[in-house]
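_Per-residue structure_
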Amino acid sequence: MQNFIKINDNDNVIVALNTIPEGAEISLEGGFNVKANMEIPAGHKMAISDIADGAEVIKYGYRIGFTKEAVKCGDWIHVHNLKTSLGDLLEYTYEPTPVEEQKTEDVTFMGFNRPDGKVGVRNEIWVIPTVGCVNNVATAIAKKANEFVKGTVDEVIAYPHPYGCSQMGDDQENSRKILADLINHPNAGGVLVLGLGCENSSIDVLKPYIGDYDENRVKFIVSQEHEDEIEASVEAIKELIDYAATFKREPISVSKLVIGMKCGGSDGLSGITANPLVGRFSDLLISKGGTTILTEVPEMFGAETILMNRCANEELFHKTVDLINDFKNYFKSHNQTIYENPSPGNKKGGISTLEDKSLGCTQKSGSTLVKGVLAYAETVKTPGLNLLSAPGNDLVASTALAAAGAHIVLFTTGRGTPFACPVPTVKISTNSALASKKSNWIDFNAGVLVEDKPMKVVEKEFFDYVVAAASGEKVCSEKAGFHDFAIFKQGVTL
């Protein structure tokens, strides 16, 4: 295994794959040697040429910031001597990047065909509260109802949340849309919608958002109307289990799969191993007619033009410009800095600026054309690569991906996290040390890509793994019984 990587020929930094001791000599292509002037931690950057004060630092072939002071060849480059080069709202020009669309042979997974034409990768029963007041009741119902699970039904799961009342404007509207999206999600073979009876987003208010529904699949309980709401709910779930148990796994084309893509707790290897691997997966799935969704808009800042110029047409370009600028204005409306530095964990892992993180983050998008741009709580309609408006927060963004229609979320991480979202959440480690230490969290190790295992081999292994997960193989968070749910709060709480 080599001790460093130069990602792009135009870069003036390398990334340490292992800690480079002070005084160690690095041999670059062309017979050029660089001596480390100080210890360079794993995942961090080292200058491979002198860089003047205020000059560009280049990584991934793009600028990731300006130096705060003159940097010598062999110096460590991080937050102490590097600052963002980004500003506020920008003017963008559509300069389409030529992309050759690929078609590859179809593959099948074992999934559940639904009567409405959708497909599911799980056959669960979901308990969806309309309001936070009945959260504990929903949890108690799910616990009791799991005694009656049978056949192909996986389990009964409650999704508590603190909203559905005391909300105004967009917050209330978004809560209703997200709840309706989950109620209609095909991974749920049956859904119990649990209301209180006096909330703003009551069942009667929510029904128009749900639209047409199968009465065998979706049932409603208003807690204030029953002497024992838990008993009534369990009886309703027994009927839902009977219905859901009629579905059997059968071969389905992967063109029907919708896969969400998200990263969190990044490190210096995120943009070198796990994120590019997910990008290759995205390209491969799309070549078979499938769909992927990329989100966390604030972590596109600094790399947004790459996505804009891959938009399939000018209308999508303008939607992407709005996607970016609307989020910038959201920051500004709350008097917050648009280009806030990465989180403490990101910095510790070697990420120095938002551009540094964004250029690594957008590696997950692969190289295909952008075919759709979605508002928060909007569901996917167009096959291919889609961009979704949601923040960087792991739970909120992953929930948004599930609500948009993702059957599975691919989550890359260099630091590790146990969380899950309403759909199977596959954790991909950027480094082997994390995969070894937290095998109870990590589902797939992309760290082998810097240990001389070829991308082609790892890409196939990973694609096969995701197909297996879609066919019913439980991921780590499912085995642990973790199911998280978070709605994006932006405004006033009454």
About this structure: The mean pLDDT is 95. The chain is about 30% helix and 20% strand. The longest strand covers residues 188-195. The domain at 4-83 is CATH 2.30.130.110 (Archaeosine Trna-guanine Transglycosylase; Chain: A, domain 4).
